[in-house]
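Fold this complex.
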Amino acid sequence: MMQNFVTLIRAAVFFGTVIMFGCVGETVTEKAGNLNLGVPGIMYLGGIASLSSVFIYEGSTDNPNKVVCVILALVSAFVASSLGGLIYAFLTITLRANQNVTGLTLTIFGSGVANFFGGSLNTLAGRFEQIAVPVTSAAFRTTLPFSGSLGIVGELFFSYGFMVYLAIVIAVLTHLFMNHTRRGLNLRTVGENPAAADAAGINVNLNKYLAICIGAGICGFGGVYYVMDYIKGTWANDGSIETLGWLAVALVIFTTWKSKHAIWGAYLFGILYWLYLYIPGLTRSSQEIFKMLPYVVTVVVLIVTSLRNSRDKQPPAALGLPYFREER
Amino acid sequence: MEANLNHVHDPWVRIAKRDELSFLTKLGIRIAILAVGVIVCAVIIYIITGLNPFVVYLTVVKGAFGTVRRVWATVREMMMLACIAIGLAPAFKMKFWNIGAEGQLLIGGIVSAGCMIYLPFLPGPVLLLLMFVLSAAAGALWGLVPAVFKAKWNTNETLFTLMMNYIAIQLTAFFVSKWENPKGSNTVGIINPNTRAGWFPEIAGQQFMLNVIIVLVLALLMNIYLKYTKHGYEIAVVGESWNTARYAGINVGKILVRTMLLSGAVCGIAGFLAVSGASHTISTSTAGGRGFTAIIVAWLAKFDSLTMLFISLMLAFFDSGANEIASKCGLNDYASDMIIGIILFFILAGDFFVNYRLVFRKKASSVIKDGNSGVSGKEAA
Amino acid sequence: MADAAIEFKNVTKRFGSVVANDHVSMTVNKGEILSLLGENGSGKTSLMNMLSGIYFPDEGEIFINGEPVTIRDPKDAYALKIGMVHQHFKLVDVFTAAENLIVGIDPGKKLDRKEIAGEIKDICDKYGFVIDTGKKVYDMSVSEKQTLEIVKMLYRGADILILDEPTAVLTPQESEHLFSVIKNMKKDGKTVIIITHKLHEVLSVSDRVAILRKGRYIETIKTSEADEEKLTELMVGRHVELNIERPEVENKELRLSVKNLNCVNSEGQQVLFDINFDLYGGEILGIAGISGNGQKELLEAIVGLQKTQSGASVVYYDPESDKKDDDGKSAGMEMIGLSPRMIREKGIHLSFVPEDRLGMGLVGSMGMTENMMIRDYSTASKSLLFTDKKKPRELAEEIKESLCVVTPDISTPVSRLSGGNVQKVLVGREIAAAPAVLMTAYAVRGLDINTSYTIYDLLNEQKKKGVAIIYVGEDLDVILALCDRILVLCDGHVNGILNGAEARKEEVGLLMTELKEKRREEIAE
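Structure:
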């Protein structure tokens, strides 16, 4: 029983970490007033960028350095994801394209790029073994040295790779940035009332560009974690990243646009997602019904927020709306 | 020194709305942008694979249209996409962001598959008709839920319909394991492989002819519905401004609900096509992301059915063609998504150049006047 | 001039072909309260927007404290210690007062809410403001929001403060308090510019008055040497020869009877108080009042777009109706409680030209033909399913012809037409419906003189046909020349109904700004 519980929590943490990155990244983006439905695509881009760069590096040397592997994976993922965000930002801000349509296109593009390279990386690199980056993956999955000696506590809290903690740190930092710094306040003003931001001397477009690109970079880490830790440094063309990406978007709603809630919300989604495995007496088909839980919960949250009309739990007021200072 | 700066007025480039362009000019701009997109793709293909991009494109053409069978596969894919886009058109025209086509399609598919499994004894036409009606009804129901909440409490429909997709996917997974055949395969397998009950009949010797007929009829009806009926008019007014709609005496909530019923129904029919007219099975990937791609199709086509057919053809062409590249050049077929993504980016960017022009800074004191304002003084005298 | 805080030299601003400010040269002295007076559209706000960095002048120069300056955006304005409180507040609803105050300032600095609250308190104490720094903007009343905006500018260190129509949304008491605060700021050496068109405010608070008329600077006079009549004359200019006819119509019949109309807006504030009036066929009833004093709600309540408090009654008497009661009047139909569609279906011939032309009266993305269908698309066509575009097309052609609408084609989206042509399409459609009652809101706003005259002629034509017309307007000259009777709205009250031929402009102006009952109450106190 206890062991079941620990396994469930651990599964939820693995799962939750992926969507926590996505959720926090998307929160940053949405706070600037842009609804980016390209999150799955961006996570794909982050995942494949880290995998390919490390794959090439590991193949090029006999003795890959773990630190270099990790840094290479994170930097390449951040850059690739930000570039994806940049495409979205340029189309929606400068070229005034529709946010929803542009985001969905980014998702198609990102999944295309990622699965294309994921499927043909070995061919392209002239190597014909299975794609795997064992050194890097091992580095990502290195747990704290004392986790093994702490029994259940260690297993519950310390038996994860560093990115689990990185996600929490980023969520906390984002929360602090949004609520306890002036730049964060400025960013939120852009998403709430761009005209007010403009009148207060804030550069609306610059803020939006930065928020989208940095937000995309954070989403990309979700892809890195998925590839390096969740599926242990391989590639799978099974569309899981896409599902996780959409759940990350849903989690943003669930957290009512507050990144601190993403920390427990993401794990809760993980628990809801894996719960079916631990409920006795479920047939395989009724398990599938149970897997609906995270989505149903999100819908309920969505309805309740619109019903309650609480002013502090609403999306940024200008979310999804374009802003152009009036033609002079 | 500061005073001199005072004469530097506008930024060096600014964006101004264009006057309405002629159809041909617009088409010209779009084709030019599309051409740039295709060229960019070619360059990218060359960089990645070192393959001659012309050879690659030729392979794409061959893959999509090389044999009669391939032509039909491309057409089938095109009809699927077009059908969903047709369903989305009324919702989008009403500015209701129905991202839930994927789910509405799956629900329609589940019902179709259910009919095939439980009612194979019905006479063919009756069964098909029943499947058609029930899958439309199921899709409509799936579209109805978010619409009711939007009408009542203005609940955000984009995210609601998105979540409805995943609920539908899980529901599909549930039925897949329920209808599993053979046991343990976790797939439904081809339903009624021998009796072919509930399969689209061949028409003129063509397996997918009925798909084409249904979608073309739907396209025609939807065009008529949106352009010539009272309902279509109401949808257009609600989409433009809820205030104007109220001024015109239109009950906005009623239109929201009614239109989403229709939108969901057509997407449900797409599910019927996918199951009964194509795969003869059901799985969680029956929709396969087409629900999302179709959103872009409907949006880019500005809700015109003919344009939707055309864009669907283009996307289906790249999709089928890429399979050919995959086998010929040893790459995988996700290349098509990448290429489609890039081309869609260019089409989206193209919209900007159709609607806006860039005004570069000119010498001081030249004022850009808009065409209409000068006239209004004269005319009323 | 050492004591000039602001100097405009030949400043010109154009919007397309419209000249908002035409070579304006004027001076604002340091430490004075200056009223910038002018009618709507005289260019007050656009002139000030050039100080606050929202607009950039096309020509001319601006000097602050004797130095030539370039103000490209609000940031530059703040650097020059200029702060403007816009008519539409630039606040974030979900932020607290304190958060709104510091938005955009020193992005690198620490966000210490306690310290900020202390700084705010100092400012408030100094000038006599009261602000709850932790209160969210969405919980604030309009006057609290305004206070917040003013404090925001002071917090940013503004020495020159511009207030755009600050009292438009305030009660008289709140206005009084605002004026005392403004005087405190003057004592502290601040320069304050108040954009207004309310004469009594000008006289009670300012040191000097600068007058703009139709984009041109007229002159600046000392308040001590001014009175309301003189200011009105300067503001309006010499009596313009407005050759607007006022044909006399015989046999006026009662068309509309409005009784006990009370109305509360979506924010819970009462916007109409006990409105009572009658409207007769063959007359134009002008509704005068400062914009936002209940005009919009009154018209929308009559057409069924605005909920009314119980007890209200709007009775319509049809000219064609055979049913006559004992007095020989036709029997009336109650309109309260009916939706716009039900009103139409009951055969009530009511036409309405709303203030928001493209947001309510017309569909901007549709052509003329489809815009003709808005009124009766569901009943005009015999088919159950299909719309009939033949008649609307004919009507569109007819209106295009008779009103000289300039459009490439009747299928061109109306949003692409110029303002005057848009209005012709809207008015043309509403008149074509052969109304018995025709209501227009700001029918000539933003239109050039020629188009305005076309509209006046159209209204008079309808009047001669026996149509009862309500004309909500903002130009008093026009109202006085055109209307048979003038109903003056003030703060949602009917503050008097005057005879159009006899009323004097000053009299109407006074009724627009001073609520009679309030005045009486004040005297009683």
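The mean pLDDT of chain C is 84.
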